[in-house]
Amino acid sequence: MVTRAVAALSRFTIRARCILFAGPSSRHISVASSIMARSHVNCEIKGDVAVIRISDPNSKVNTLSLQMQKEMTEVMDEVWGNSAIKCVVMISSKPGCFIAGADINMIQACKSTEEVTRLSQEGQKIFEKIEKSPKPIVAAINGSCLGGGLEFAIACQYRVATKSKTTVLGTPEVMLGLLPGAGGTQRLPKMIGLPNAFDMMLTGRNIRADKAKKMGLVHQLVDTLGPGLKSPEERTIEYLEEVAIDCARGIVNKKLALTKEMNMMQKIQDHVMSYSFVQNRIYSTVEKKVLKQTKGLYPAPMKIIECVKAGMEQGPDAGYLAESQNFGKLAMTPESKALVGLYHGQVACKKNRFGVPEKEVKTLAILGAGLIGAGIAQVTVEKSINTILKDITEEALNQGQHQVYKGLNDKTKKKSITSFERDSILSNLTGQLDYSGFEKADMVIEAVFEDLAIKHKVLKEVEAVIPPNCVFASNTAALAIKDIAAASKRPEKVVGMHYFSPVDKMQLLEIITTDKTSKDTTASAVALGLKQGKVVIVVGDGPGFYTTRCLAPMLAEAVRVLQEGVDPKKLDSLTTGFGFPVGAATLADKLGIDVAAHMAENLGKAFGSRFGGGNLELLKTMVAKGFKGRKSGKGFYVYQSGLKDINPELKEIVESYNMMPTPAVSSDSDVQYRLISRFVNEAVLCLQEGILTNPVEGDIGAVFGLGFPPFLGGPFRFVDNFGADKLVEKMKTFEEVFGNQFTPCQLLLDHAKDPSRKFHRLIH
Amino acid sequence: MEVDRLLGSGKLGKPFWGGNTCAEFKVQLLWLPFSSSKSKKTLSKTGVKNIVLVDGVRTPFLQSGTTYADLMPHDLARTALQGLLNRTGIPKDAVDYIIYGTVIQEVKTSNVAREAALGAGFSDRIPAHTVTMACISSNQAMTTAVGMIAAGQCDAVVAGGVEFMSDVPIRHSRKMRKTMLSLNKAKTLGARLALLGSIRPAHLAPELPAVAEFSTEETMGHSADRLAAAFGVSRREQDEYALRSHSLAKRAQDEGLLSDVVGFKVPGKDIVSKDNGIRPSSMEQMAKLKPAFVKPHGTVTAANSSYLTDGASAVLIMSEEKALALGYKPKAYLRDFVYVSQDPKDQLLLGPSYATPKVLERSGLKLADIDVFEFHEAFAGQILSNLKAMDSDWFAKTYMGRTSKVGSPPLDKFNLWGGSLSLGHPFGATGCRLVTTVAHRLKKEGGQYGLVAACAAGGQGHAMVIEAYPQ
C-alpha cells in the first residue's frame, strides 16, 4: 500500500478536485469583511441542538481563513456557554464543499518558520477544544473535506458524510510539500491505524465516502437525494442535517455509541499494532519506501513520518510540537514553494483565457484510432460528447475501439463507474471507416501518422466534408502547424492540439496557435481540452512548439552521455536522481526510438547544431535493427513479461559510436546539469522568442507533460531558485567543451546579470 | 397527520371505516354532484371504437411461500383464466387472442400466456403471447389488447398477469454455466474430466435474482427510501398510510367488496378464497420495526412496503359491439392511456406523477372529474411522495415542463378498497386488479370516471382513464 502511496507522490498528480486553498482574492476580502457581523459562520439553535453552518460568502469553497477561524471560535464559545444547548452539528451550506482546506495565502503571508509554526499551533489549539468539547459535535460532510477541513472533521466526536461523488476526504498537504499541521498527524493514526494513516498522508489521495466509512474515518453515510419539493442539492444538505441532528441527540441520549464496534480481525490487528516493535517495523518500512521513491528530494513525507512517530512514542505533547515545528520548517522550503507555485499554475491553466467559444463542441471527430486517437476518444466520450473515431483499416479501428472500452472497463473494475455507466458512456462513440457524419462535426482532431504529406491529404479530405464553422485540430508533436495549415482553405480554423500519451493519464494538453488561427478557434480548442479534464497551455507555432523543443536537446545530450559509455541504467538513475519520474533512457523507449529519431532529425534541421550533441545515427541504427522501444519489445531495454533489462545488443551499437568523455565535465553531477541545463535553456529561449506567453505555462507544461521534477517547480522556478548566474556559470563550463549547445540564451544572461530579475513573483 | 384525515374522511364527517355503514357512505357519495359538473359527458369519440371491460377476476393474492408454494406460475394464470371462463361464461373458442404480463419468468414457461391458456382449456387455436414491463406488465397486456381491438385485428381479447415469487429462477454462476455448456460439447472422456476438474468452489455460488435496477444496481426499497426523504415524507406518515391501506382492505374484504377474487382449490391443500396479506396492525407495533433498506436512519420498513406476493389476474376485453352481440353487459369503457418514463435512479417510482396529468390532458378531463382513483402502492413512501409531487407547482414546472401542478387526488376517492400494500403485489398481476377494482368501485359508488396509475421498475409509469358503463 505504501509503495503505491509513494509512487503516486512521485508521479505528482494534483487532482482537479483537490482544491486545498482558495484563490488569492479571499484573504483580501476576508480582512475587509471582518468589520461586518458574522459572514462566514452562522448558528441556528434547534431545541437542544446548535446547527453551525459554514459558508464563505466570497468563494466557491470554504477555507479555514483567519475570518472563518475567528467567527468559529466566537460561535463555539457561545455554544459552550449556553446551557440549553446539548449538542452541535457542524455543516457547510455550500453544495459540493465542506471545508476544502486552510487558506494558503495565510501561510504564504508568513515570513518565518516561527510564524508558520504559530499558525499551526493556533489551529491545533482550536481543534483540541473541539475534540475535548463537553457537548458532542457531529460533522456533517457533503463535498470536499480536505486538509485543514479534514483535520477539523476528525477533531469532532462523530462524522456523517453523504455518498455523493463530490464527497471526498483527504490530506493533500504532502502534494504541496507540507504536512497536516493542525493535529492531523496525531489524530489520523489513532483513528484509522498506522498503515491507512500513512497511506492517506503520504499520497494525499482523496478517499471516497464509502471507503472512508470502511476505514473508520466516518461513522455513518447518508444517501444523496433526487428531485423532491426542492432541488436535489439543497434537499440533500437538509437531509444530511436532519440525520446529523438525530445522531447528535443519539449521542447525548447514549443511544449512539461513539466507539465503533470492531470485529475479531480488527481487534487482532489493533492488538498487533500496539506492540512497539511492530510499529517500528512499519516506520522503517515506510521510511525505506519513501526514500526509495522520493530519492530524498521531497522533505515532507519524511517529516510526516517523524511527527507520527513522535506522537506515538513520546506522547501527544511531543507529537503536536513536532507537527507544528515541522509544519513551519516545511512551509519555508523551496520544495514547498515550488509545489505551491505549481498548484497556482495548475489552477490558472484550468481557465480559458480566450473566453467562451461561439459554438460549444458537441460532436468531435477524430482521425486515426491509434494510441493517441483512441485516448482522445476516451476522454471525450467520458464527457458525453458525441465522438466519431475514424481510421482507414478495420483492424486499426477495432484496436482503437477496444482501447476505449478497456480504459472504461478498467474504471468499472475499480468501481469508479458502474458497468451500466460504462456502456452508456460508450454509446457516445461511433467507430467508422468513412467520413459520414462529419457534416455535423464541430471539431476534427487528426491524429494520423506524423508526415506532412499525409496530414495535407487528410486535411483536404476533411475540409471537403465538414461544415464551415468546424475547427480542424492537428495532433502533432513536432510538425509546424502553419505548414499543415498551408494546405487549408481556412487557416483561421486550424490549430494544433498536442496530447500526451497515455491520453487518459497525462494531464497536459499543449495547444498551438499560428498567427492565422482565430481567437475563437483557440477558445474552442481550450474549452474542449478543459472539458476533457486537461491542464491546458497555449503556445506559439514553431518546430517542436514548447514541450518537444525542450525535450529534444535533453535527449540529444542523453545520447551523447550513452556514447560516452554510460549505460542506460546509470543514465536513468542520474535523471531520476535529479527528480524526473522517468529516466531518460526509459522515456526514450516509451516515446519510441523511431519517434525520437524523427523528432531529433526534424528539429536538428530547424535549429541546427544547437540541437546536436549525441549522434543521430545511433538512434537510426537502433531503428534499423528494429529496436523501436517499448512498443517493439526492444529499445535501450528489452521488455519481456513485465521485466526490463538492458538490451544486450545495444552495447555493440553504442561502441561503434563511441566518444571519449571529457573528465572535467563528466561527473555524475555534471552529467545531470548537462541534461537539465539544455532543457532549461531551451525553455527560457521559448519565452524569449514568444513561443511561450508566460513562465507559468512553461513550468506547467514541463512538469505535467515531460515530468520535469515537480519539487523544482518547473524550469523557470528552477532558474529563480537555483540562480540564473550559477546556471550560466555551469553552462559556460560546458560550452567550452561542447560548443554552442550550451550557449545560454539572452534572457537567461539578462537574469544572470541582474539577480533581482525573477520569472515568478517572489514568495518571501 | 391524523389517521382519520388520511382515511379520507374529511368530506364525510367521520372516519367511514370506523362505524358508518356502507349504505350511509353510498348515500353521501351519491350526494356529490357527478355527471352534471364533469368537463365531458363521455369520453366516447367519433370514429374511435368503444372498447369495454366485460369482467375481471383474480386468484386470491397470497404472500409468497404460503399455500401456493408448490405450484408453478402458469398454474396461477390458468386458475385466473378458468375463473374468467366461469365468471363470464364465454365459449372457449370465442376469444381471438390471449396476452399475459409477467416479470420474473419461469424459464420452462417463458411464454406463460400460451401454457396457461392451453391448461385452462381455451381452444388451442387461440394465439397467446407474454409481455413484460415490470410492475405494469398486465397494464401493458391490457393496452396491447385495446390496441389490437382498436386496430380491428381482434374483437375479444383476454389479458392478464401473473407473478409467482414462491419459486424464482436461481442460476448457477456464469463460470459454472460456461463450464456446463462446454461439457455438452466435450467429445472425449478426457476433455469432460478436464472440464469437471476445472470446477472450483467459487463456481458453485448461485446467482439470486434481486428486486434491483440493472442500470443503477439500487434496490427498489432503497430508492423508495431516498424518494421519501427527498419529499420529506416522515416515517409516521408512511406508517399511517400503510395502516390505512390495511384497514381499508380488511373492511373491503369483510364486506365482500373484493368480488374479483375467485376461489382456488390448490391441489393437495385447502380451497383458498381470500387474500392472506391483509393485516391491520397498530401504529405502536409498526413503529417498532427497523428500517429495511437505509440503515440506520431510513424510513421504509417491512410494514410500510408491499410484500412478495403470488397471484394472477385476468380480464376480458371486447369491442362494445362484440360484447353487446354476445349479450354481455360491460362493466366499463377502457379509455385513454399513457406510458411515461423518467430517470431510473432518482425518479424511479414517480411514474404516477408524470402519467396522471398526461392522461388527463389526453382525455380532456380535470383531476376533479375523476370519481375513483386506484394507484398502485409499491411503498407507502412512494404513494405519499407522488401525492406531494402532484401537488407541487415547483415540481411540475422544474421537472415535468408543465405550467402548473395537476393537484393531489383527494384521499376520500383514493384506493378505498385497500391497495398493493395490503392486498399484495404480484408484480405482473397488479394492473388488472387495479382496472377491475376501478370498474367495480365506479359501479358501487356511482361514479363516472376512474383513473388507474402505477409506477414500475426502470423508472416507467402508466395511467389509464376508465369510464363507467351506463347503468
TrEMBL record, chain B:
Cellular localisation: Endoplasmic reticulum; Mitochondrion inner membrane; Mitochondrion outer membrane
Origin: domain of life: Eukaryota
Entry keyword annotation includes Cell inner membrane: no
Leader sequence segment: none
Major subcellular site: endoplasmic reticulum
Domain Thiolase N-terminal: 51-321
One example GO MF annotation: acetyl-CoA C-acyltransferase activity
Entry EC no(s): 2.3.1.155, 2.3.1.16
Catalysed conversion reaction: tetradecanoyl-CoA + acetyl-CoA = 3-oxohexadecanoyl-CoA + CoA; dodecanoyl-CoA + acetyl-CoA = 3-oxotetradecanoyl-CoA + CoA; butanoyl-CoA + acetyl-CoA = 3-oxohexanoyl-CoA + CoA; decanoyl-CoA + acetyl-CoA = 3-oxododecanoyl-CoA + CoA
Cellular component, GO, one term: endoplasmic reticulum
Keyword check for Nucleus: no
NCBIfam families recorded: AcCoA-C-Actrans
The protein's assembly and partners: Heterotetramer of 2 alpha/HADHA and 2 beta/HADHB subunits; forms the mitochondrial trifunctional enzyme. Also purified as higher order heterooligomers including a 4 alpha/HADHA and 4 beta/HADHB heterooligomer which physiological significance remains unclear. The mitochondrial trifunctional enzyme interacts with MTLN. Interacts with RSAD2/viperin.
PANTHER family documented for this protein: ACETYL-COA C-ACYLTRANSFERASE, TRIFUNCTIONAL ENZYME SUBUNIT BETA, MITOCHONDRIAL
Family: Belongs to the thiolase-like superfamily. Thiolase family.
Protein name (database record): Trifunctional enzyme subunit beta, mitochondrial
Native organism: Electrophorus electricus (Electric eel)
